[in-house]
Amino acid sequence: MTEHSLYLDGPEATAAAGAALAAVLRPGDVVALGGDLGAGKTTFARGLLHALGFAGEVPSPSFPIVIPYAPPELRLPLWHVDLYRIDDPEEIEELGLDEARADSVLLIEWPERMGARLWPDALRLAIEPAQRRGGPDARRLTWAAPAPWEGRWPPRT
């Protein structure tokens, strides 16, 4: 997989990138969203969830670990997962992610906590500050798209 990148000028552009991804999601997709605290993962997730039809406030799932969304609040089922508080990859088994993936999208923050358990067909995204390129809110989105994502991500413009 080749790594690619895109510069985002601020929170609106970060949310718009999430919305662009929402347009191509299918049940069974896994999106692994990495980045440090404050990098913009939740902003990206908000853009994605709002584009899927969610009208409410999008909380970070740091405390509950998993927040499931389903129709009619979204156009397809999605589990928003935050593994920040997971210390042992064995704990992930208890979350039921394999079962959820059968009919839902998995949007996973802190995917590195899964170790080798992260599915090889996951779209791997990372967000990092890019102050040298823009202002304090500028971000760099990088990704590695495996074969199942070819032609879907990045979106053609």
From TrEMBL:
Pfam families, per the entry: TsaE
Q: Where is this gene product found?
A: Cytoplasm
Give Gene Ontology CC terms: cytoplasm
Database matches in InterPro entries: P-loop_NTPase, T6A_TsaE
The terms under GO molecular function for this entry are:
ATP binding; metal ion binding
Give the UniProt keywords, A-Z. Answer: ATP-binding, Cytoplasm, Magnesium, Metal-binding, Nucleotide-binding, tRNA processing
Q: Which SUPFAM superfamilies match?
A: P-loop containing nucleoside triphosphate hydrolases
Has the keyword DNA-binding been applied to this entry? no
In the UniProt record, does the keyword Disulfide bond occur?
A: no
**What's a BP term from Gene Ontology annotated to this protein?**
tRNA threonylcarbamoyladenosine modification
The record's NCBIfam families line, in alphabetical order, gives: T6A_YjeE
Family to which the UniProt record says this protein belongs: Belongs to the TsaE family.
Record protein name field = tRNA threonylcarbamoyladenosine biosynthesis protein TsaE
User: What is the native source organism of this protein?
Assistant: Rhizorhabdus wittichii (strain DSM 6014 / CCUG 31198 / JCM 15750 / NBRC 105917 / EY 4224 / RW1)
